[in-house]
Amino acid sequence: MRKVSIKNYYKPTKLIWRKIGDSLLIAATSLSAFVMNTPLPEKTKLWLVFSINFIGVIGKVISNLFKQD
After folding, report:
1. Residue 34's domain spans which residues?
2. Largest CA distance in the chain
3. Which residues pair with 66 in a beta bridge?
4. Which residues contact 20 (CB under 8 A, 6 or more apart)?
5. What is the dihedral of CA 26, 31, 33, 35, to 10 degrees?
6. What is the mean pLDDT of the chain?
7. DSSP category for residue 40
8. For 7, which DSSP code?
9. Pseudo-torsion of CA 45, 64, 66, 58, nearest 10°?
10. pLDDT digits (tens, 9 = 90+) for 6-31
11. Cβ within 8 Å of residue 28, ≥6 positions away
């Protein structure tokens, strides 16, 4: 059973959730590097990179809320 709570943030995270969070973070970093090399206007690149990294960090933080049973 999954236990989701803010109190669980510093408790051990189940391996599958830790892998999902790390994968999101790595994918966000890779995508933001790819976006920086595209021929888009600078303002568009800035917002895309910010959005992608924000989603990656939020995904990692949310994955830490799941406690290991």
Report:
1. 3-67
2. 47
3. 4
4. 59, 63
5. -170
6. 85
7. -
8. G
9. -20
10. 777 777 778 888 888 889 889 999 99
11. 52, 53, 55, 56, 57, 59
Which two tokens mark 53? 């990294």
End-to-end CA distance of the chain: give it in Å, rounded: 7
Tokens 């994955």 map to which residue? 63
How many domains is the chain partitioned into structurally?
1
Per the structure block, which two tokens stand in for 58? Answer: 């939020």
Rounded-to-integer distance, Cα 52 and Cα 69, Å: 31
pTM tops 0.85: no
> Residue 61 and residue 2: Cα distance in Å, rounded?
16
Whether the CB-CB separation of 36 and 45 falls below 8 Å is answered with yes
